[in-house]
Amino acid sequence: MKDVVISGTGLYNPPHIITNAELVESFNAYVALHNERHAEAIAAGHVEALQLSSVEFIEKASGIQRRHVIDKAGVLDPTRMRPRFAPRPDEQLSLMAELGVAGARDALRAAGKTGADIDGVLCAAANMQRAYPAMACEIQAAIGAKGYGFDMNVACSSATFGIEQAVNAVKSGSARCVLVVNPEITSAHLEWRDRDCHFIFGDVCTAVIVEAADTATSADRWRVLGTRLHTQFSNHIRNNAGFLNRCEDTDPDARDKTFRQEGRKVFKEVVPVAAAHIERHLADLGLKPAEVQRYWLHQANLGMNQLVVKKLLGDWDSRRAPVILDDYANTASAGSIIAFHLHHADMAAGERGVICSFGAGYSVGSVVVEKVAA
Ligand code: COA
Prior knowledge:
Shape: globular
Distance between the termini: 22 Å
CATH topology of the domain at 222-371: Peroxisomal Thiolase, Chain A, domain 1
Order of helices and strands: EEHHHEHHEHEHEEEEEHEHHHEE
CATH class of the domain at 222-371: Alpha Beta
CATH architecture of the domain at 222-371: 3-Layer(aba) Sandwich
Structural class: alpha+beta
Strand content: 15-25%
Helix content: 25-40%
Number of strands: 13
Bound molecules: coenzyme A
């Protein structure tokens, strides 16, 4: 079996930022409009009055301060409350592929590769723009890659699950150099009118180049010591949007056709599973949690990451488990990859880290890496 490395990572940030103050101002304007429009029904007890959101709640409950989005105006318009994307003709690069190509180009630059060096493209994300053709095939064509491409979705664990597929492809020889790209347009699956979750998500694209150690030339290489995946079914994070909807004659705008969760249950149930998963994975590699210098964790909630790290190390240490949630919010599968991308440059050869995602499914994926001497 070949030694496999991550030889480059990439990040694309959409141009607009929404602060919590801006978000809450528009949400509360929407609430005022709704309550005014339904004043009579509310007074008669037929419709529930909506409640105001607050910046204090969002920051205390989640740790999120701002988020990047592709379209700010549509999200903040209290009469719309969702991004506005212009439809594109089939001949034009699709929006999701455009993000994917931007993230991919950044990763290719970091790895010292061109599109022609890539012979496997995995588009791994929590949502796909269309049923087919696969987004990966469009991205493959746009960057001039060879080989094959396919899409995969394991919600917030799509990126780590994709890395395992890439590592196995390179190990087995079915590909030499694989691009795993995570265009996460979460602003389109979020119900911006729901006070319980309107602050949660942001848009981004990350990308990772996985290749055989003997073909990697970049100075920044991370040997993959091991990958491990785990899933167990739960309805506590769910989105029923899908191709059967029109045959069910259900309302495409109904609440169950966008992201929903039982946030408190998710918090309680996922933390112990994620911590135990990491601990077991490390133990099987002969490592103790204290022998790992950095934890690049999924970014959904600051309190969750603090608890996972306390279970592993005894104490919360933000240097050991960098937080990007404040600037990015939850970016689905891209969160742990952003943390890795932005917070590894200071690490020395031989130092180790764990990239770990957790989310809907439930799903947990871990990738243990070690910095290679330049
Ligand atoms: N502004 C003000 N108050 C709000 C509010 C808002 N935007 N949203 C909810 N509240 C209120 C609720 O109505 C509730 O009031 P009550 O106590 O009077 O009933 C109270 O705040 C607590 O709500 P709750 O939903 O229990 O908050 P929480 O502390 O669990 O925080 C999350 C909510 C979503 C931030 C948190 O549960 C979380 O992040 N969970 C993990 C989710 C996760 O990892 N998901 C993965 C997605 S991929």
